[in-house]
Prior knowledge:
Layout: H1 3-18, H2 24-39, E1 43-50, E2 53-60, E3 67-69, H3 73-81, E4 85-87, E5 105-113, E6 116-125, H4 133-143
Antiparallel strand pairs: 1-2, 1-6, 2-3, 4-5, 5-6
Helix pairs in contact: 1-2, 1-4
Amino acid sequence: MDKRSTYETLVKQATxxxxxxxxxxxxxxxxxxxxxxxxxxxxTGFYFVESEELVLGPFQGPVACTRIGYGxxxxxxxxxxxxxxxxxxxxxxxxxxxxxxxxxxxxxIPILQNGKTIGVLDVDSTTFDxxxxxxxxxxxxxxxxxxx
Length: 148
Ligand code: SME
């Protein structure tokens, strides 16, 4: 199956799992699981803005950094710019925060509410250049299942 078809399947699965549940923590937890296991990514999870920092939310994968500053790393850059970040080689990204030495590429999607970044969805892969505009399109769509 190509990437688009896999994402289409995941959107259907996530829609059916999330649609009748109103608890956001439950929905976030299931959504990261669906994405993570759908592609066998290295790390998939949320960070949420709490005053001056991003704080770790529901995730799948190895233990991760708990707090990330505004404008710091790929996640903090996504928060600051309010735009998706696609990094083909994290070792070449200045200021990248290496929660895990195994991670080689990364995509971060902003979660926006009323023009403000309230959090980010971060996905890491051990494969270089894992992510492109198709991932951005579908990960954004998946995030919108919780935050319309
Ligand atoms: N690499 C991220 C930090 C979060 S972990 O990858 C889970 C960054 O540079 O913001």
